[in-house]
Amino acid sequence: QGPNSIYKRVLLKISGEALMGDQGYGLHPPTVERIAREVKAVQEMGVEICMVIGGGNIFRGLAGSAQGMERTTADYMGMLATVMNALAMQSALEELGVYTRVISAIRMDEVAEPYIRRRAVRHLEKKRVCIFAAGTGNPYFTTDTAATLRANEMACEAIFKGTKVDGVYDKDPARHDDAVRYDRISYDDVLIKNLKVMDASAIALARDNKLPIIVFSLDEPGGFRGILNGEGTYTEVH
Ligand code: UDP
């Protein structure tokens, strides 16, 4: 454990869109590399890191089903999109000399390890970054729920949700100048006020297991490391 971090093991959740940079779609390798550097900086503090990356930059099940595709098939396509993002992140991290494993909820042994909880824990103990891919492996879920599930299974102390803004606001800060950021807010208030932190099933799963969710800005250079050092602004959902 590093000199400053108060956390030993965390899960970083980012949406697929965080990897597309200014493009409207897909992967932007310099952006992937920038986030990989953020992860490396935290790993250098001795923190054990899990990652879950969404797939929305490539494919979303709901969007597919809105266009007439069968919902579960569309969801599987979304899960496959998360595998692509996970591989891109693995490549960027390994380029920086960080050891990683991609662990898939859907078996594809030539591409990624299957998810075996004890094995994943062992990787973390060996300081390998575990990138959990393919969501929960089930349609009708999201990668937010997958992140909460894996964070619980891996006994992470908190989920760090990297977004474009530095926390949870009472209304969209991009559209309202008078939006106010919460320092701390309860799971129930997030649900009642329908605030966009994570989807409701993910919030409920975190609440039932008392897993804090820390929402912070991934656009702030050094932001992830700073938050783990207790610096910067963020919202803690507790
Ligand atoms: N998905 C799924 N089950 C899961 C996780 C994801 O079916 O456990 C599918 C779902 O279709 C979703 C897509 O994968 O729309 C991409 O994930 P998500 O929307 O969570 O990505 P993000 O918004 O974080 O980029």
From TrEMBL:
<dbReference type="GO" id="GO:0005737">
    <property type="term" value="C:cytoplasm"/>
</dbReference>
<feature type="region of interest" description="Involved in allosteric activation by GTP">
    <location>
        <begin position="21"/>
        <end position="26"/>
    </location>
</feature>
<dbReference type="Pfam" id="PF00696">
    <property type="entry name" value="AA_kinase"/>
</dbReference>
<dbReference type="GO" id="GO:0005524">
    <property type="term" value="F:ATP binding"/>
</dbReference>
<comment type="similarity">
    <text>Belongs to the UMP kinase family.</text>
</comment>
<feature type="binding site">
    <location>
        <position position="56"/>
    </location>
    <ligand>
        <name>ATP</name>
    </ligand>
</feature>
<dbReference type="InterPro" id="IPR015963">
    <property type="entry name" value="Uridylate_kinase_bac"/>
</dbReference>
<feature type="binding site">
    <location>
        <position position="75"/>
    </location>
    <ligand>
        <name>UMP</name>
    </ligand>
</feature>
<comment type="pathway">
    <text>Pyrimidine metabolism; CTP biosynthesis via de novo pathway; UDP from UMP (UMPK route): step 1/1.</text>
</comment>
<dbReference type="InterPro" id="IPR011817">
    <property type="entry name" value="Uridylate_kinase"/>
</dbReference>
<keyword id="KW-0067">ATP-binding</keyword>
<feature type="binding site">
    <location>
        <position position="60"/>
    </location>
    <ligand>
        <name>ATP</name>
    </ligand>
</feature>
<keyword id="KW-0418">Kinase</keyword>
<keyword id="KW-0808">Transferase</keyword>
<dbReference type="InterPro" id="IPR036393">
    <property type="entry name" value="AceGlu_kinase-like_sf"/>
</dbReference>
<comment type="function">
    <text>Catalyzes the reversible phosphorylation of UMP to UDP.</text>
</comment>
<keyword id="KW-0963">Cytoplasm</keyword>
<dbReference type="GO" id="GO:0044210">
    <property type="term" value="P:'de novo' CTP biosynthetic process"/>
</dbReference>
<keyword id="KW-0021">Allosteric enzyme</keyword>
<feature type="binding site">
    <location>
        <begin position="13"/>
        <end position="16"/>
    </location>
    <ligand>
        <name>ATP</name>
    </ligand>
</feature>
<feature type="binding site">
    <location>
        <position position="163"/>
    </location>
    <ligand>
        <name>ATP</name>
    </ligand>
</feature>
<comment type="subunit">
    <text>Homohexamer.</text>
</comment>
<feature type="binding site">
    <location>
        <position position="55"/>
    </location>
    <ligand>
        <name>UMP</name>
    </ligand>
</feature>
<feature type="binding site">
    <location>
        <position position="169"/>
    </location>
    <ligand>
        <name>ATP</name>
    </ligand>
</feature>
<dbReference type="InterPro" id="IPR001048">
    <property type="entry name" value="Asp/Glu/Uridylate_kinase"/>
</dbReference>
<feature type="binding site">
    <location>
        <position position="172"/>
    </location>
    <ligand>
        <name>ATP</name>
    </ligand>
</feature>
<keyword id="KW-0665">Pyrimidine biosynthesis</keyword>
<dbReference type="GO" id="GO:0006225">
    <property type="term" value="P:UDP biosynthetic process"/>
</dbReference>
<feature type="domain" description="Aspartate/glutamate/uridylate kinase">
    <location>
        <begin position="8"/>
        <end position="217"/>
    </location>
</feature>
<feature type="binding site">
    <location>
        <begin position="136"/>
        <end position="143"/>
    </location>
    <ligand>
        <name>UMP</name>
    </ligand>
</feature>
<keyword id="KW-0547">Nucleotide-binding</keyword>
<protein>
    <recommendedName>
        <fullName>Uridylate kinase</fullName>
        <ecNumber>2.7.4.22</ecNumber>
    </recommendedName>
</protein>
<dbReference type="GO" id="GO:0033862">
    <property type="term" value="F:UMP kinase activity"/>
</dbReference>
